Structure to design on (558 residues):
Protein backbone atom coordinates (compact mmCIF):
# COMPACT_ATOMS: atom_id res chain seq x y z
CA UNK A 1 0.00 0.00 0.00
CA UNK A 2 1.47 3.43 -0.88
CA UNK A 3 2.03 5.84 2.02
CA UNK A 4 -1.16 7.62 3.05
CA UNK A 5 -0.76 11.36 2.71
CA UNK A 6 -1.94 13.32 5.76
CA UNK A 7 -2.73 17.01 6.15
CA UNK A 8 -2.92 18.06 9.81
CA UNK A 9 -3.99 21.56 10.78
CA UNK A 10 -3.87 22.78 14.35
CA UNK A 11 -6.07 25.44 15.92
CA UNK A 12 -5.66 27.09 19.29
CA UNK A 13 -3.22 26.72 22.10
CA UNK A 14 0.31 25.46 22.66
CA UNK A 15 -1.08 22.28 24.23
CA UNK A 16 -2.70 21.55 20.85
CA UNK A 17 0.55 22.28 19.03
CA UNK A 18 2.30 19.71 21.19
CA UNK A 19 -0.54 17.20 20.72
CA UNK A 20 -0.25 17.62 16.95
CA UNK A 21 3.48 17.10 17.07
CA UNK A 22 3.04 13.86 19.03
CA UNK A 23 0.26 12.65 16.72
CA UNK A 24 2.46 13.41 13.70
CA UNK A 25 5.37 11.45 15.18
CA UNK A 26 3.11 8.51 15.85
CA UNK A 27 1.60 8.49 12.35
CA UNK A 28 4.93 9.00 10.63
CA UNK A 29 6.31 5.96 12.42
CA UNK A 30 3.43 3.99 10.92
CA UNK A 31 4.31 5.09 7.38
CA UNK A 32 1.98 8.07 6.94
CA UNK A 33 3.49 10.98 5.08
CA UNK A 34 2.65 14.63 5.89
CA UNK A 35 1.81 17.14 3.18
CA UNK A 36 1.50 20.93 3.52
CA UNK A 37 -1.86 21.38 1.73
CA UNK A 38 -5.17 19.54 2.10
CA UNK A 39 -5.67 19.17 -1.66
CA UNK A 40 -2.95 16.56 -2.00
CA UNK A 41 -3.88 14.60 1.15
CA UNK A 42 -6.01 11.49 1.44
CA UNK A 43 -6.40 11.97 5.20
CA UNK A 44 -7.37 15.47 6.40
CA UNK A 45 -7.15 16.08 10.16
CA UNK A 46 -8.14 19.16 12.17
CA UNK A 47 -6.86 19.40 15.73
CA UNK A 48 -9.44 21.75 17.18
CA UNK A 49 -9.99 24.24 19.99
CA UNK A 50 -13.28 24.90 21.80
CA UNK A 51 -12.27 27.72 24.13
CA UNK A 52 -14.21 30.30 22.11
CA UNK A 53 -16.86 29.93 19.43
CA UNK A 54 -14.65 31.71 16.90
CA UNK A 55 -12.18 28.83 16.98
CA UNK A 56 -14.99 26.35 16.36
CA UNK A 57 -16.40 28.46 13.51
CA UNK A 58 -13.07 28.21 11.68
CA UNK A 59 -13.17 24.43 11.88
CA UNK A 60 -16.78 24.33 10.72
CA UNK A 61 -15.82 26.41 7.70
CA UNK A 62 -12.89 24.05 6.92
CA UNK A 63 -15.27 21.10 7.14
CA UNK A 64 -17.64 22.88 4.76
CA UNK A 65 -14.78 23.26 2.23
CA UNK A 66 -13.71 19.64 2.48
CA UNK A 67 -17.30 18.42 2.05
CA UNK A 68 -17.32 19.30 -1.64
CA UNK A 69 -14.17 17.33 -2.25
CA UNK A 70 -15.47 14.35 -0.35
CA UNK A 71 -18.45 14.19 -2.70
CA UNK A 72 -16.01 13.63 -5.56
CA UNK A 73 -13.64 11.43 -3.56
CA UNK A 74 -15.54 9.27 -1.08
CA UNK A 75 -12.28 7.53 -0.09
CA UNK A 76 -11.04 10.75 1.57
CA UNK A 77 -10.82 10.40 5.36
CA UNK A 78 -11.71 13.46 7.46
CA UNK A 79 -10.92 13.56 11.18
CA UNK A 80 -11.72 16.06 13.92
CA UNK A 81 -9.33 15.78 16.87
CA UNK A 82 -9.08 17.70 20.12
CA UNK A 83 -11.46 19.74 22.25
CA UNK A 84 -14.21 20.31 19.66
CA UNK A 85 -14.46 16.57 19.04
CA UNK A 86 -14.80 15.98 22.77
CA UNK A 87 -17.26 18.81 23.37
CA UNK A 88 -19.52 18.23 20.38
CA UNK A 89 -19.22 14.45 20.37
CA UNK A 90 -21.26 12.42 17.93
CA UNK A 91 -23.59 15.39 17.39
CA UNK A 92 -20.80 16.77 15.25
CA UNK A 93 -20.95 13.75 12.94
CA UNK A 94 -24.73 14.04 12.77
CA UNK A 95 -24.51 17.67 11.75
CA UNK A 96 -21.44 17.23 9.58
CA UNK A 97 -21.50 13.75 8.08
CA UNK A 98 -18.29 14.53 6.21
CA UNK A 99 -16.47 13.63 9.46
CA UNK A 100 -15.24 10.02 9.60
CA UNK A 101 -13.08 10.17 12.74
CA UNK A 102 -13.61 11.90 16.08
CA UNK A 103 -10.86 11.75 18.66
CA UNK A 104 -10.86 13.69 21.94
CA UNK A 105 -7.65 15.19 23.37
CA UNK A 106 -7.40 12.51 26.05
CA UNK A 107 -7.69 9.69 23.48
CA UNK A 108 -5.08 10.68 20.94
CA UNK A 109 -3.09 7.51 21.50
CA UNK A 110 -5.99 5.67 19.83
CA UNK A 111 -5.82 7.74 16.66
CA UNK A 112 -3.74 5.30 14.53
CA UNK A 113 -6.30 2.52 15.12
CA UNK A 114 -9.21 4.84 14.31
CA UNK A 115 -7.57 6.08 11.13
CA UNK A 116 -6.70 2.60 10.01
CA UNK A 117 -10.33 1.52 10.42
CA UNK A 118 -11.62 4.64 8.69
CA UNK A 119 -9.28 4.17 5.74
CA UNK A 120 -10.44 0.55 5.33
CA UNK A 121 -14.10 1.48 5.71
CA UNK A 122 -13.84 4.29 3.19
CA UNK A 123 -11.94 2.09 0.76
CA UNK A 124 -14.68 -0.51 1.12
CA UNK A 125 -17.31 2.20 0.65
CA UNK A 126 -15.43 3.43 -2.37
CA UNK A 127 -15.38 0.04 -4.04
CA UNK A 128 -18.62 -1.41 -2.63
CA UNK A 129 -20.93 -2.65 -5.31
CA UNK A 130 -23.39 -4.06 -2.81
CA UNK A 131 -24.70 -0.63 -1.87
CA UNK A 132 -24.30 -1.60 1.79
CA UNK A 133 -24.67 1.39 4.12
CA UNK A 134 -21.29 1.88 5.67
CA UNK A 135 -22.16 5.33 6.99
CA UNK A 136 -22.56 4.09 10.51
CA UNK A 137 -18.97 2.94 10.64
CA UNK A 138 -17.54 6.27 11.90
CA UNK A 139 -14.56 5.96 14.17
CA UNK A 140 -15.01 7.64 17.54
CA UNK A 141 -12.82 7.86 20.65
CA UNK A 142 -14.06 10.28 23.29
CA UNK A 143 -13.49 10.13 27.00
CA UNK A 144 -17.00 11.33 27.89
CA UNK A 145 -17.95 10.92 31.53
CA UNK A 146 -14.94 8.69 32.24
CA UNK A 147 -12.75 11.79 32.22
CA UNK A 148 -13.57 12.87 35.72
CA UNK A 149 -13.90 9.52 37.45
CA UNK A 150 -11.76 10.24 40.42
CA UNK A 151 -9.77 7.14 41.10
CA UNK A 152 -6.00 7.15 41.05
CA UNK A 153 -6.20 4.13 38.80
CA UNK A 154 -8.06 6.06 36.12
CA UNK A 155 -5.07 8.37 36.04
CA UNK A 156 -2.71 5.42 36.31
CA UNK A 157 -4.25 3.88 33.22
CA UNK A 158 -3.43 7.03 31.32
CA UNK A 159 -1.99 5.61 28.14
CA UNK A 160 -1.44 9.14 26.93
CA UNK A 161 1.73 9.04 28.93
CA UNK A 162 3.08 6.61 26.34
CA UNK A 163 2.37 9.16 23.63
CA UNK A 164 4.54 11.76 25.37
CA UNK A 165 7.18 9.15 26.16
CA UNK A 166 7.44 7.99 22.57
CA UNK A 167 8.16 11.51 21.33
CA UNK A 168 10.70 11.50 18.52
CA UNK A 169 13.64 13.72 19.27
CA UNK A 170 16.22 14.20 16.60
CA UNK A 171 18.37 17.18 15.65
CA UNK A 172 16.45 17.63 12.36
CA UNK A 173 13.08 17.60 14.07
CA UNK A 174 13.10 20.97 15.82
CA UNK A 175 13.91 24.63 15.40
CA UNK A 176 15.71 24.94 18.73
CA UNK A 177 12.56 25.22 20.80
CA UNK A 178 10.23 22.56 22.23
CA UNK A 179 7.20 22.16 24.46
CA UNK A 180 7.17 19.63 27.29
CA UNK A 181 3.94 18.75 29.02
CA UNK A 182 4.04 18.55 32.81
CA UNK A 183 0.31 18.32 33.62
CA UNK A 184 -2.80 17.38 31.65
CA UNK A 185 -6.36 18.56 32.21
CA UNK A 186 -7.66 21.03 34.77
CA UNK A 187 -9.59 20.85 38.04
CA UNK A 188 -10.37 24.55 38.44
CA UNK A 189 -13.80 24.73 36.78
CA UNK A 190 -13.82 28.44 36.07
CA UNK A 191 -17.48 28.86 35.16
CA UNK A 192 -16.85 30.09 31.58
CA UNK A 193 -14.26 27.50 30.62
CA UNK A 194 -14.68 24.34 28.60
CA UNK A 195 -11.21 22.92 29.27
CA UNK A 196 -12.01 20.83 32.38
CA UNK A 197 -14.83 19.27 30.35
CA UNK A 198 -12.76 18.51 27.25
CA UNK A 199 -9.31 17.73 28.65
CA UNK A 200 -10.56 16.03 31.79
CA UNK A 201 -9.24 15.81 35.33
CA UNK A 202 -5.83 17.21 36.17
CA UNK A 203 -3.00 14.68 36.14
CA UNK A 204 0.67 15.27 36.80
CA UNK A 205 3.43 13.48 34.88
CA UNK A 206 6.19 11.68 36.79
CA UNK A 207 9.13 14.07 37.28
CA UNK A 208 11.65 11.51 36.02
CA UNK A 209 9.79 11.30 32.71
CA UNK A 210 9.74 15.08 32.37
CA UNK A 211 13.41 15.53 33.24
CA UNK A 212 14.40 12.69 30.90
CA UNK A 213 12.38 14.22 28.07
CA UNK A 214 14.10 17.58 28.65
CA UNK A 215 17.52 15.90 28.64
CA UNK A 216 16.76 14.07 25.39
CA UNK A 217 15.63 17.33 23.81
CA UNK A 218 18.77 19.05 25.09
CA UNK A 219 20.94 16.26 23.64
CA UNK A 220 19.22 16.78 20.28
CA UNK A 221 20.23 20.46 20.36
CA UNK A 222 17.06 22.06 21.73
CA UNK A 223 17.93 25.37 23.44
CA UNK A 224 14.57 26.50 24.78
CA UNK A 225 11.94 24.45 26.58
CA UNK A 226 8.47 25.67 27.47
CA UNK A 227 6.76 23.55 30.12
CA UNK A 228 3.03 23.24 29.52
CA UNK A 229 0.04 22.83 31.78
CA UNK A 230 -3.27 24.61 32.37
CA UNK A 231 -2.13 25.54 35.88
CA UNK A 232 1.59 24.66 35.85
CA UNK A 233 2.32 25.95 39.34
CA UNK A 234 -0.04 23.32 40.79
CA UNK A 235 2.40 20.62 39.75
CA UNK A 236 3.03 18.17 42.58
CA UNK A 237 4.05 14.52 42.46
CA UNK A 238 3.93 12.25 45.52
CA UNK A 239 6.50 9.50 45.11
CA UNK A 240 5.15 7.26 47.85
CA UNK A 241 1.84 7.06 46.00
CA UNK A 242 3.35 6.54 42.54
CA UNK A 243 1.83 3.71 40.53
CA UNK A 244 3.68 1.74 37.92
CA UNK A 245 2.10 -0.28 35.15
CA UNK A 246 4.38 -2.69 33.24
CA UNK A 247 7.32 -1.01 34.95
CA UNK A 248 6.36 2.46 33.66
CA UNK A 249 5.55 5.13 36.26
CA UNK A 250 2.14 6.66 35.64
CA UNK A 251 0.79 10.20 35.93
CA UNK A 252 -0.90 11.16 39.15
CA UNK A 253 -4.19 12.83 39.92
CA UNK A 254 -3.97 16.51 40.84
CA UNK A 255 -4.46 17.05 44.57
CA UNK A 256 -5.74 20.01 46.47
CA UNK A 257 -2.95 22.50 46.82
CA UNK A 258 -1.48 22.96 50.30
CA UNK A 259 1.47 25.18 49.39
CA UNK A 260 0.89 28.72 50.60
CA UNK A 261 3.75 31.11 49.96
CA UNK A 262 6.45 28.81 51.26
CA UNK A 263 7.27 25.25 50.35
CA UNK A 264 4.74 22.98 51.99
CA UNK A 265 6.56 21.71 55.14
CA UNK A 266 4.72 18.39 54.66
CA UNK A 267 6.13 18.02 51.17
CA UNK A 268 9.29 16.24 52.36
CA UNK A 269 11.68 14.36 50.12
CA UNK A 270 9.03 12.12 48.70
CA UNK A 271 7.21 14.95 46.96
CA UNK A 272 8.35 16.82 43.87
CA UNK A 273 6.82 20.30 43.90
CA UNK A 274 6.79 22.66 40.91
CA UNK A 275 9.79 24.49 42.39
CA UNK A 276 11.67 21.18 42.76
CA UNK A 277 10.82 20.25 39.17
CA UNK A 278 12.08 23.57 37.80
CA UNK A 279 15.32 23.28 39.74
CA UNK A 280 15.85 19.69 38.56
CA UNK A 281 15.34 20.56 34.88
CA UNK A 282 17.54 23.64 35.21
CA UNK A 283 20.34 21.66 36.86
CA UNK A 284 20.04 18.34 35.02
CA UNK A 285 19.66 19.73 31.50
CA UNK A 286 22.20 22.58 31.65
CA UNK A 287 22.46 23.01 27.88
CA UNK A 288 18.86 24.29 27.88
CA UNK A 289 19.52 28.01 27.82
CA UNK A 290 15.92 29.07 28.30
CA UNK A 291 13.40 27.35 30.52
CA UNK A 292 9.89 28.84 30.56
CA UNK A 293 6.46 27.69 31.61
CA UNK A 294 2.82 28.50 30.86
CA UNK A 295 0.17 28.98 32.16
CA UNK A 296 0.41 29.98 35.83
CA UNK A 297 -2.59 30.19 38.10
CA UNK A 298 -2.48 33.38 40.21
CA UNK A 299 -3.31 31.57 43.42
CA UNK A 300 -1.02 29.14 45.19
CA UNK A 301 2.16 30.54 43.64
CA UNK A 302 4.72 29.92 46.34
CA UNK A 303 7.86 31.93 47.16
CA UNK A 304 9.73 28.68 46.64
CA UNK A 305 9.07 28.89 42.89
CA UNK A 306 10.05 32.58 42.78
CA UNK A 307 13.28 31.79 44.66
CA UNK A 308 14.19 29.03 42.20
CA UNK A 309 13.45 31.39 39.31
CA UNK A 310 15.60 34.14 40.88
CA UNK A 311 18.51 31.78 41.56
CA UNK A 312 18.50 29.92 38.23
CA UNK A 313 20.04 32.01 35.46
CA UNK A 314 18.55 29.93 32.67
CA UNK A 315 14.93 30.26 33.83
CA UNK A 316 13.24 33.08 31.91
CA UNK A 317 11.96 36.19 33.66
CA UNK A 318 8.56 35.68 32.12
CA UNK A 319 5.19 34.79 33.62
CA UNK A 320 1.88 34.32 31.88
CA UNK A 321 -0.58 34.69 34.71
CA UNK A 322 -4.15 35.53 33.65
CA UNK A 323 -6.29 37.71 35.93
CA UNK A 324 -9.40 37.44 33.65
CA UNK A 325 -11.02 40.55 35.22
CA UNK A 326 -10.26 43.38 37.65
CA UNK A 327 -13.57 43.07 39.49
CA UNK A 328 -14.01 40.98 42.64
CA UNK A 329 -17.66 40.49 41.79
CA UNK A 330 -16.77 39.06 38.37
CA UNK A 331 -13.96 36.93 39.82
CA UNK A 332 -16.57 35.37 42.10
CA UNK A 333 -18.99 34.76 39.23
CA UNK A 334 -16.12 33.20 37.29
CA UNK A 335 -15.21 30.96 40.27
CA UNK A 336 -11.59 32.03 40.05
CA UNK A 337 -10.90 31.56 43.76
CA UNK A 338 -8.91 34.76 44.41
CA UNK A 339 -9.60 38.46 44.85
CA UNK A 340 -8.11 41.38 42.93
CA UNK A 341 -6.11 42.23 46.07
CA UNK A 342 -4.64 38.74 46.18
CA UNK A 343 -3.79 38.88 42.49
CA UNK A 344 -1.98 42.19 42.92
CA UNK A 345 -0.18 40.89 46.00
CA UNK A 346 1.19 38.09 43.80
CA UNK A 347 2.26 40.47 41.03
CA UNK A 348 4.10 42.70 43.56
CA UNK A 349 5.72 39.67 45.19
CA UNK A 350 6.83 38.28 41.80
CA UNK A 351 8.32 41.66 40.87
CA UNK A 352 10.10 42.00 44.22
CA UNK A 353 11.83 38.65 43.60
CA UNK A 354 12.43 38.81 39.86
CA UNK A 355 12.36 42.32 38.41
CA UNK A 356 16.00 43.34 37.86
CA UNK A 357 16.02 45.91 35.04
CA UNK A 358 19.43 47.19 36.13
CA UNK A 359 20.87 43.76 35.24
CA UNK A 360 18.87 43.81 32.01
CA UNK A 361 16.60 41.14 33.48
CA UNK A 362 13.25 42.86 33.92
CA UNK A 363 10.32 40.60 34.78
CA UNK A 364 7.82 40.55 31.92
CA UNK A 365 4.26 39.56 32.74
CA UNK A 366 1.56 38.58 30.25
CA UNK A 367 -2.13 38.22 31.05
CA UNK A 368 -5.54 37.21 29.76
CA UNK A 369 -8.76 39.17 30.25
CA UNK A 370 -12.35 38.18 29.46
CA UNK A 371 -14.54 41.13 28.58
CA UNK A 372 -18.32 41.19 28.93
CA UNK A 373 -18.81 38.16 31.15
CA UNK A 374 -22.31 37.60 32.52
CA UNK A 375 -23.47 40.54 34.63
CA UNK A 376 -20.41 42.72 33.93
CA UNK A 377 -21.29 46.38 34.56
CA UNK A 378 -19.47 49.55 33.48
CA UNK A 379 -18.09 49.73 37.01
CA UNK A 380 -16.63 46.19 36.71
CA UNK A 381 -15.18 47.13 33.33
CA UNK A 382 -13.52 50.26 34.77
CA UNK A 383 -12.01 48.13 37.51
CA UNK A 384 -10.48 45.88 34.83
CA UNK A 385 -9.08 48.94 33.08
CA UNK A 386 -7.58 49.97 36.43
CA UNK A 387 -6.05 46.51 36.84
CA UNK A 388 -4.32 46.78 33.45
CA UNK A 389 -2.81 50.13 34.46
CA UNK A 390 -1.70 48.80 37.82
CA UNK A 391 -0.16 45.52 36.58
CA UNK A 392 1.44 46.85 33.39
CA UNK A 393 1.44 43.63 31.41
CA UNK A 394 3.99 43.30 28.65
CA UNK A 395 1.07 42.06 26.59
CA UNK A 396 -2.42 40.99 27.47
CA UNK A 397 -4.78 38.77 25.50
CA UNK A 398 -8.20 40.38 25.66
CA UNK A 399 -11.14 38.17 24.75
CA UNK A 400 -14.83 38.81 24.35
CA UNK A 401 -16.80 36.44 26.55
CA UNK A 402 -18.03 33.54 24.43
CA UNK A 403 -20.61 31.29 26.14
CA UNK A 404 -19.57 27.65 25.78
CA UNK A 405 -22.12 24.83 25.93
CA UNK A 406 -21.33 22.43 28.74
CA UNK A 407 -19.96 25.07 31.12
CA UNK A 408 -21.66 26.27 34.31
CA UNK A 409 -21.92 29.80 32.97
CA UNK A 410 -23.66 28.57 29.81
CA UNK A 411 -26.25 26.70 31.88
CA UNK A 412 -26.76 29.15 34.75
CA UNK A 413 -25.63 32.65 33.87
CA UNK A 414 -27.20 34.81 31.15
CA UNK A 415 -24.97 36.14 28.36
CA UNK A 416 -26.40 39.57 29.10
CA UNK A 417 -23.79 42.09 28.01
CA UNK A 418 -24.81 43.50 24.63
CA UNK A 419 -22.48 42.62 21.76
CA UNK A 420 -21.82 46.32 21.08
CA UNK A 421 -20.78 46.84 24.73
CA UNK A 422 -18.51 43.80 24.65
CA UNK A 423 -16.84 45.17 21.52
CA UNK A 424 -16.44 48.65 22.94
CA UNK A 425 -15.03 47.34 26.21
CA UNK A 426 -12.54 45.10 24.38
CA UNK A 427 -11.43 48.07 22.31
CA UNK A 428 -11.09 50.33 25.36
CA UNK A 429 -8.95 47.74 27.13
CA UNK A 430 -6.88 47.11 24.00
CA UNK A 431 -6.19 50.85 23.73
CA UNK A 432 -4.98 51.01 27.34
CA UNK A 433 -2.86 47.89 26.90
CA UNK A 434 -1.48 49.26 23.66
CA UNK A 435 -0.13 52.33 25.46
CA UNK A 436 1.43 50.23 28.20
CA UNK A 437 3.02 47.74 25.78
CA UNK A 438 4.30 50.66 23.74
CA UNK A 439 5.86 52.30 26.78
CA UNK A 440 7.48 49.03 27.93
CA UNK A 441 8.88 48.46 24.43
CA UNK A 442 10.28 51.99 24.12
CA UNK A 443 12.07 51.68 27.47
CA UNK A 444 14.15 48.89 25.93
CA UNK A 445 15.68 51.23 23.34
CA UNK A 446 19.43 51.50 23.97
CA UNK A 447 19.68 48.27 25.93
CA UNK A 448 21.53 45.16 24.81
CA UNK A 449 19.34 42.09 24.77
CA UNK A 450 20.04 38.46 24.00
CA UNK A 451 17.67 37.15 21.34
CA UNK A 452 16.77 33.56 20.62
CA UNK A 453 16.34 33.41 16.84
CA UNK A 454 13.12 31.80 15.65
CA UNK A 455 12.95 32.42 11.92
CA UNK A 456 12.46 35.04 9.27
CA UNK A 457 10.08 37.83 10.24
CA UNK A 458 6.49 38.08 9.02
CA UNK A 459 7.55 41.01 6.83
CA UNK A 460 10.22 38.84 5.25
CA UNK A 461 7.79 35.97 4.67
CA UNK A 462 5.46 38.38 2.96
CA UNK A 463 8.29 39.69 0.80
CA UNK A 464 9.35 36.17 -0.18
CA UNK A 465 5.91 34.70 -0.79
CA UNK A 466 3.95 37.79 -1.70
CA UNK A 467 1.36 37.15 1.01
CA UNK A 468 1.06 37.30 4.77
CA UNK A 469 0.48 33.89 6.22
CA UNK A 470 -2.16 32.87 8.70
CA UNK A 471 -0.46 29.53 9.10
CA UNK A 472 3.05 28.49 9.87
CA UNK A 473 4.71 25.14 10.20
CA UNK A 474 4.43 23.96 13.77
CA UNK A 475 7.33 22.54 15.79
CA UNK A 476 8.98 20.05 13.52
CA UNK A 477 8.16 21.89 10.31
CA UNK A 478 7.17 18.82 8.32
CA UNK A 479 3.92 19.99 6.84
CA UNK A 480 1.99 20.21 10.12
CA UNK A 481 0.00 23.43 9.91
CA UNK A 482 -0.75 25.72 12.80
CA UNK A 483 -3.55 28.19 12.35
CA UNK A 484 -3.47 31.26 14.50
CA UNK A 485 -6.28 33.69 14.84
CA UNK A 486 -8.63 35.70 16.93
CA UNK A 487 -6.82 39.00 16.53
CA UNK A 488 -8.57 42.36 16.57
CA UNK A 489 -12.01 42.84 17.96
CA UNK A 490 -12.48 39.24 18.95
CA UNK A 491 -9.47 39.38 21.19
CA UNK A 492 -5.74 39.32 20.73
CA UNK A 493 -3.75 36.51 19.19
CA UNK A 494 -3.49 33.47 21.41
CA UNK A 495 -0.34 33.07 23.50
CA UNK A 496 2.55 31.98 21.32
CA UNK A 497 1.19 33.45 18.12
CA UNK A 498 3.78 35.07 15.91
CA UNK A 499 3.63 38.83 16.07
CA UNK A 500 3.93 40.78 12.89
CA UNK A 501 6.34 43.66 12.53
CA UNK A 502 3.99 46.33 11.27
CA UNK A 503 5.94 47.90 8.47
CA UNK A 504 6.14 47.30 4.78
CA UNK A 505 9.14 45.53 3.34
CA UNK A 506 11.72 47.20 1.13
CA UNK A 507 12.01 45.49 -2.24
CA UNK A 508 15.53 44.21 -1.55
CA UNK A 509 18.19 44.20 1.16
CA UNK A 510 19.16 41.88 4.02
CA UNK A 511 16.78 39.17 5.21
CA UNK A 512 14.87 40.29 8.29
CA UNK A 513 14.84 37.74 11.12
CA UNK A 514 12.80 37.54 14.29
CA UNK A 515 13.38 36.16 17.76
CA UNK A 516 12.47 36.59 21.43
CA UNK A 517 14.17 37.91 24.53
CA UNK A 518 14.25 36.12 27.87
CA UNK A 519 11.20 38.22 28.82
CA UNK A 520 9.36 37.18 25.62
CA UNK A 521 9.74 40.50 23.82
CA UNK A 522 9.82 40.18 20.04
CA UNK A 523 12.97 41.53 18.38
CA UNK A 524 13.53 41.82 14.62
CA UNK A 525 16.99 42.30 13.14
CA UNK A 526 18.85 41.88 9.84
CA UNK A 527 20.56 38.61 9.05
CA UNK A 528 24.30 39.38 8.81
CA UNK A 529 25.91 39.29 5.36
CA UNK A 530 27.41 35.88 4.65
CA UNK A 531 25.13 34.00 7.10
CA UNK A 532 22.24 31.95 5.80
CA UNK A 533 18.99 32.68 7.64
CA UNK A 534 18.46 28.95 8.22
CA UNK A 535 21.76 28.64 10.05
CA UNK A 536 20.68 31.40 12.47
CA UNK A 537 17.47 29.68 13.59
CA UNK A 538 17.73 28.18 17.06
CA UNK A 539 20.86 30.23 17.93
CA UNK A 540 21.33 33.25 20.19
CA UNK A 541 22.46 36.71 19.12
CA UNK A 542 23.13 39.85 21.17
CA UNK A 543 21.35 42.89 19.83
CA UNK A 544 21.28 46.56 20.68
CA UNK A 545 17.74 47.89 20.51
CA UNK A 546 17.53 50.91 18.22
CA UNK A 547 13.79 51.55 18.03
CA UNK A 548 10.50 50.06 19.18
CA UNK A 549 6.78 50.02 18.76
CA UNK A 550 4.03 48.31 20.71
CA UNK A 551 4.79 44.73 19.80
CA UNK A 552 8.19 44.81 18.17
CA UNK A 553 11.71 45.91 18.99
CA UNK A 554 14.22 46.57 16.22
CA UNK A 555 17.74 45.43 17.07
CA UNK A 556 21.24 45.53 15.57
CA UNK A 557 23.54 42.62 16.17
CA UNK A 558 26.49 43.63 18.41
N1 LIG B 1 -14.86 33.14 26.46
C1 LIG B 1 -13.83 33.99 26.25
N2 LIG B 1 -12.58 33.72 26.62
C2 LIG B 1 -12.34 32.55 27.25
N3 LIG B 1 -11.21 32.01 27.74
C3 LIG B 1 -11.49 30.81 28.26
N4 LIG B 1 -12.80 30.53 28.11
C4 LIG B 1 -13.35 31.61 27.49
C5 LIG B 1 -14.67 31.95 27.07
N5 LIG B 1 -15.69 31.12 27.28
C6 LIG B 1 -9.92 32.70 27.72
C7 LIG B 1 -9.35 32.91 29.12
C8 LIG B 1 -8.22 31.91 29.17
C9 LIG B 1 -7.78 31.88 27.72
C10 LIG B 1 -6.99 30.68 27.32
O1 LIG B 1 -8.99 31.92 27.00
O2 LIG B 1 -8.87 34.21 29.22
O3 LIG B 1 -7.17 32.31 30.03
FE1 LIG C 1 -10.04 26.97 32.18
FE2 LIG C 1 -9.84 28.06 34.63
FE3 LIG C 1 -8.69 25.65 34.10
FE4 LIG C 1 -7.66 27.90 33.03
S1 LIG C 1 -7.77 27.40 35.24
S2 LIG C 1 -8.05 25.94 31.95
S3 LIG C 1 -9.49 29.15 32.65
S4 LIG C 1 -10.89 26.12 34.09
Amino acid sequence: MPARKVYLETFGCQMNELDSELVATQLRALGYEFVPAPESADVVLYNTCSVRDLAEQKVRSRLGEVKLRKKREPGLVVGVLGCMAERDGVDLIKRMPVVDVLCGPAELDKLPGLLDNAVRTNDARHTADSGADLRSANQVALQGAASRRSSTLAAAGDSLEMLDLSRAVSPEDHNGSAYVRITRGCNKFCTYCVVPHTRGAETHRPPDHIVEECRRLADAGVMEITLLGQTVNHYRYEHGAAVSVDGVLQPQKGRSFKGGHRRDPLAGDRTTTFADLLRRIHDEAPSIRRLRFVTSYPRDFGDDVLEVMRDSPRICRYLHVPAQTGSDRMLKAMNRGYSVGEYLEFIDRARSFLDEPEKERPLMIAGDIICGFSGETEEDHLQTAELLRRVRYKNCFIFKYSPRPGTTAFDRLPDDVAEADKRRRVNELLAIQHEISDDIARRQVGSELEVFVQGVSAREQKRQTGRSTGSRAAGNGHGVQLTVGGAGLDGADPPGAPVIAAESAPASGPVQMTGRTDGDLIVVFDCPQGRSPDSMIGTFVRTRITRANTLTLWGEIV
